[in-house]
Amino acid sequence: MGYEVLTAFFLEAGFLGIMLFGRKRVGDKLHFFATLMVALGTLVSATWIISANSWMQTPAGYSIAENGQYVPEDWWAIIFNPSFPYRLVHTVLAAFLTTAFAVGAVGANHLLADRTNRQARIMFSMAMWMAALVTPLQIVAGDAHGLNTLEHQPAKIAAMEGHYETQKGAPLILFGIPNDQTDTTDYAIEIPKLGSLILTHDPDGEIKGLKEWAKEDRPPALIPFITFRVMVGLGFLMLGLGLWSLWLRWRGRLYDNVWLHRAAILMGPSGFVAVLAGWYTTEVGRQPYTIYGLLRTSDSLSNVDAPAVGASLIAFIIVYFVVFGAGVFYLLRLMRRTPQTDDHELEKAPNRAAGITPGPAQSSKVEPNNGH
Q: How many Å from the N-terminal Cα to the C-terminal Cα in the chain?
């Protein structure tokens, strides 16, 4: 976490103000460079954070001293622990898709008001390209991540799938209500053998059920079961929207199909919801451990009095409410603002040189492009 602050946080913070407020002050080239630096800093930040979290999921490169402390033996093994590459790719692609659908929703909203707006077209087009190209990659990355989790955290997979009994040729439970009291998934709707096919790539592969572990060593099944399906369901909706946009792009109707634009607006928050659902799946699924298989959550609580914990929690809530609220307010203002193309200024420049002042109709009209 120290490396995250030293290598990423300062980089992001140093250029964030330029990116948000400095375009008219520093010029397009420096503004674009600042934007790239913020993106790079965020990526480096995500790398360190995912590494730290992944180590708690699949610890490696350590030893335990006589006093019970975890001592680093191999920093490369610690950083590049067994689940780190899968989690990093999955998280970064999720961030790309979250951004794409948020930007796409804003572009679609402005296209509903004016389908000739060039900047809105660019926003929407780029977002739909991202949806169409990155969503399939994310599905493949998610499958690889699932196989890695099956190898290192099989109890989490059992909770995610709602399986209590170990079985070969396990079905895929589409919907149901896992019941940890009765060790059954009630009202289950299943597809035979598909669970084993997805997880082991063998329709008769064996999948361990939660009964393989003592009840005190199992994760609670209900939350990972539900959040996993929310994440996957949204992923396939993203894929559907991306394919729909490709079809309309091919037909030259990407910018004038009202139903696609409305669907894109509805899908605007989908990336945020999917990311949160994925993290709930990950963190609840590793319970009852803070460090998987080694340190229980109940044993890692700080020896701090409740009033002190409450005071610090309230302070965090107030500070984050103010900071996050201000950020959301600013973003919503940007979203509501009609995108303005620089073409206006380009068109005015020759006219000014010739002593011609464009009329209101000339200065406000934006010619539509060819639909691509």
A: 44
* DSSP-assigned letters across all residues of 92-146: HHHHHHHHHHHHHHHHHHHHHH-TT-HHHHHHHHHHHHHHHHHHHHHHHHHHHHH
**Is the model's pLDDT at 279 over the cut of 90?**
yes
Cα gap 141→121, rounded to integer Å: 30
> Exposed e or buried b for every residue in 242-263, given b needs 16+ CB within 10 A?
bebbbebbeeeebbebeebbeb
* Tens-place pLDDT, residues 244-268: 999 999 999 999 899 999 999 999 9
121 and 255 Cβ atoms separated by less than 8 Å: yes
In degrees rounded to 5, what are phi and psi of residue 174?
-70, -50
Q: What is the DSSP letter of 179?
A: E
How far apart, in whole angstroms, are the C-alpha atoms of residue 79 and residue 27? Answer: 39
How far apart, in whole angstroms, are the C-alpha atoms of residue 195 and residue 208? 11
The kind and range of the H/E element at 317 are helix 306-336
Task: Indicate the domain borders of the chain.
Answer: 1-82, 84-297
The whole-model pTM stands at: 0.83
